[in-house]
Write a structure and sequence with these properties.
Layout lengths: L9 H12 L2 E6 L5 E3 L2 E2 L6 H7 L7 E5 L6 E5 L4 H7 L4 H9 L3 E4 L5 H10 L4 E3 L6 H18 L8 E3 L2 H9 L3 H24 L6 H14 L4 E2 L4 E4 L21 E5 L1 E3 L2 E2 L2 E4 L1
Parallel strand pairs: 1-7, 5-6, 7-8
Antiparallel strand pairs: 1-4, 2-3, 4-5, 9-12, 10-11, 11-14, 12-13
Length: 278
């Protein structure tokens, strides 16, 4: 299956954003990395909105968009670290982030760093903030602390804290209409997923375990160029098919069972979702 897909025009997306943003500012934050065990993390997946606007796919990253600042698009990322890069691979770092991802400015995302100053500066002329509350507690605390800092800079103006809006007020409508590049990614995700389901149907037989079918699905997804699972695959035989979000995938299948498979591949953050029972 061909892997070539047209490039996504992130510049056009940002242009459309600024037409909607007015005097507001938008903050998009990557999810924190989570320890799985010892020094191993769970697989990282970027915040969908952050990737949609920037194409940047590293943890510990922040994007700041301002409708009132000369620096409309700023990207804040984890700094380079030779020791960590030896263990986990190369980190892009602020300098390369600015060049590769078209930001007006870039800096480190660590607390008490360039992001804090840039956000406070942008707030001084803004009339509202677009930021998703409730996702990351530490980031919520950081944002409100910086808003209080900006209020002190404004002095006795009598104005309240800035109204905080959900970013999907801006980005939700933008994402409803898909470009050709997006449609092609959705189509590839659907094609890869469909082929994986058909492969599972061909090999499934009594005596196999659900996890063997799950493994075949994953092999087909990755083998055909999907970056990751769209969601954990449900492979549910017999009575397990009646569990809405069954996840164990460990039952041995018997003659006469119905087998429900709910599985989809993700291609560049676009996911297919297919459920079939046979």
């Amino acid at each position: 299956m061909a892997n070539e897909l047209p490039k996504v025009d992130f510049v056009a997306r940002r242009k459309a954003l600024f037409q909607r943003l007015g005097k507001g500012i938008l903050v998009l934050s990557a999810p924190p990395e989570v320890i799985r065990n010892n020094d191993v993390h769970f697989s990282f997946r970027q915040n969908s909105n952050l990737y949609y606007m920037t194409g940047f796919d590293e943890p510990s990253s922040l994007a700041l968009f301002s409708g009132v600042s000369k620096k409309q698009y700023q990207l804040f990322v984890q700094p380079r670290n030779k020791t960590r890069e030896l263990w986990e691979g190369r980190i892009i770092g602020p300098e390369r982030a600015k060049t590769l991802f078209g930001a007006d400015a870039a800096g480190p995302s660590t607390p008490d760093s360039a992001f804090d100053d840039a956000f406070v500066e942008a707030l001084l002329d803004a009339d509202r903030v677009f930021y998703r509350l409730g996702l990351f507690a530490d980031m919520d605390t950081r944002i409100f602390s910086l808003m209080q800092k900006a209020m002190k800079k404004l002095g006795r103006t009598g104005r309240p804290l800035w109204a905080v809006h959900d970013p999907d007020e801006l980005l939700g409508e933008m994402r409803l209409v898909k470009s050709k590049a997006e449609i092609d990614r959705l189509q590839k995700a659907a094609d890869v997923s469909s082929e994986a389901h058909q492969s599972a149907m061909k090999i499934a037989k009594p005596g196999m375990f659900e996890y063997q079918i799950e493994a075949a699905l994953f092999h087909a997804f990755r083998g055909n160029g999907a970056g990751r699972l769209g969601y954990d695959s449900i492979v549910a035989s017999g009575p397990n098919a009646c569990v809405l979000h069954y996840r164990n995938n460990d039952r041995q299948m018997a003659q006469g069972d119905l087998l429900l498979i709910d599985a989809g591949a993700e291609v560049d953050f676009y996911t297919a979702d297919i459920t079939r029972t046979f």
